[in-house]
Amino acid sequence: MIKFLNIHRPQGSGNNQVTIVFDGKEGNFHYEAAAPSIEVIFSIGQSADDKIRRLVEESPHPKTIVVVTNDREIQLSVRQLRAQVRTIDEFLKKSNHAQKLKQKTDKKNSADEKVLSYSSEEKINEELKRIWLKS
Q1: What tens digit of pLDDT does each residue of 8-44 get?
Q2: Helix, strand, coil % (nearest 5) of the chain?
């Protein structure tokens, strides 16, 4: 996840602070060093959900916080604390990688579209009338 955030930046600008909260204590698994704008927190002694709620509660500006989760209970509780909420899919759609793929697809689709001239349309319509509208 940290590598993905470093490379694709679905959080937008590299200046946007990201905090990732994991259950447990540091050292339970290996992870790559994060960029300076990405902070990794372990929820030692409490659940990650409780840690996230506490971070929002203690923030002087909870409206500037975006909590990314698919957990409905966390979504509800942090919304009540005035934080913004995004599902994982919503968050990932903002990634540069996803935007680039969409742009490539859009360009390809527009290049694949065939445009008929008015005279070609008329010829095709006349031929179809002749074939299908025999009396």
Answers
A1: 666 777 777 888 888 877 665 656 666 777 888 888 8
A2: 50, 10, 40
At 112, which amino acid appears? D
> What does the buried/exposed string (b/e) look like for 19-38 if buried means 16 or more CB atoms within 10 Å of the residue's CB?
ebbbeeeeeeeeeeebeebb
Q: Write down the pTM of the prediction.
A: 0.62
Q: What is d(CA 67, CA 85) in angstroms, rounded to the nearest whole number?
A: 5
CATH class of 2-94: alpha beta
Residue 81 is encoded by which pair of tokens? Answer: 């604390």
**Closest C-alpha to 47, from 17, 18, 77:** 77
Separation CA 6–CA 38 (nearest Å): 8
Distance CA 2, CA 50 (A): 21
Q: Domain ranges in the chain?
A: 2-94, 100-132
**Is 14:32 a contact under the CB 8 Å cutoff?**
no
pLDDT tens digits, one per residue of 38-65 = 888 888 889 999 999 999 999 999 999 9
